Amino acid sequence: MQLNILTPELKVFSGEVESVQFPGMEGKFQVLDNHAPMIASIVEGIVKIKSAAGKQEFKVKSGIVEVLKNNVSVLTEGIIQ
User: What is the pTM of this model?
Assistant: First the structure.
């Protein structure tokens, strides 16, 4: 599935992934290939990405996630270094 992580200033990540885990408002949740459509809020925390190239993590501020037809879009207020 295609994952895009965006802040108001830049595109943080764009690529094909196997799974992605988010820090949701009521706990962590994971999105896999062919996930049902959804929109969810995320809180400050770690986004964990698993792809053919390996694993990556980004610490994000709050935002939203949209899942639709194997496209996952993350709009976050920013990345925490």
Answer: 0.94
